[in-house]
Amino acid sequence: MAKIVLLSKVRGSFYPCGFRASHDALDERDAFLAHSPRWYRNFSRGSAFLLCAVVSFALASCSQRRAPRALTPKLGTRAKGIASWYGDPYHGRATASGEIYNMELGTAAHRRYAFGTWVRVDNLDNGQHTDVRINDRGPFVRSRIIDLSRASARQIGMLGPGIARVRLTVIAPPPMTSQAPPSPSTQRAATVTPAAAPRGSRWDVQVAAYRSQEVARQQVSELIAAGQRAEILPKGSLWRVIVLSSDGSEKQAHHLLDMLAPAWSGAFVVRQDTQ
Question: Are both 160 and 217 inside the same structural domain?
Fold first, then answer.
């Protein structure tokens, strides 16, 4: 029985989607088609072109697939699933938001939630909970819904097991970040270093560091809108977000740190030299 070989004809030679066929295949095909009705010969040639077109379209569609858009969830939105955590070797690397990942901060990665979204994570196995800020994308295991920093995982007792059944609840940001978006004049002021700085050294609080200057400016704008004196200072490839203490003294800096700690779990006191 003769075999059916679907080929396309290009410049006098037969090709299956652009690849040259063997002489035996060509002879076998020509002999079969010579005794076939005209409608079948036309269908045979056309089906090869159609098959190539369908395959090309499918490959193009796969290559143009886009990542899902960020979702801004409503307060109170809940979800249940499996949580995991990540630390080394990601510590010190840039997250998807541009922020430098610090595994000792209360942050997390989520596939869809917009950056800056605050989520309460309840461990359904032991009843413990922690509040985290979304600043990264993940997890990349289909069955998991959130990737916690090491500090957050420690707070809900899942460092050892590595995973836990959790309930996520979208919550309002802490008081320091719950202000309305700053006005354009406030945004311009965010890039200006306050002038009332004493000579010598002063003590302030660093709340974060980012690779992206734009992200750092946004955080400074929120701090200023909340009534703080803040600035961004470069250090190597990073932009540090600094909140200024009232008089530059170490005592006032530590008092400021106590006030900022609920919203900025990784904040710390820094000494700055002034001219």
Answer: no
| Residue in 118, 95, 103 with CA at minimum distance from that of residue 159 | 103
Q: Is residue 129 part of a domain?
A: yes
Provide the terminal-to-terminal Cα distance of the chain, rounded to the nearest Å: 95
Report pTM. 0.49
Residue 177 within any structural domain of the chain: no
Assess contact for 231 and 189: CB atoms under 8 A.
no
Q: Is residue 84 located within the same domain as residue 157?
A: yes
Residue 43: give the domain boundaries. Answer: 8-63
Tens-digit pLDDT profile for the chain (275 aa)? 444 444 444 444 444 444 444 555 556 666 666 666 666 556 555 665 666 666 666 665 554 445 568 888 999 999 999 999 998 888 888 888 888 888 888 899 999 999 889 999 999 999 999 999 999 999 988 899 999 999 899 999 998 889 999 999 999 887 654 333 444 444 444 443 443 444 568 999 998 888 888 888 888 888 887 788 899 998 888 889 999 998 889 889 988 888 888 777 778 899 887 65
Q: What is the CATH number of the domain that holds 232?
A: 3.30.70.1070
Q: Is the dihedral of CA 49, 50, 54, 55 positive or negative?
A: negative
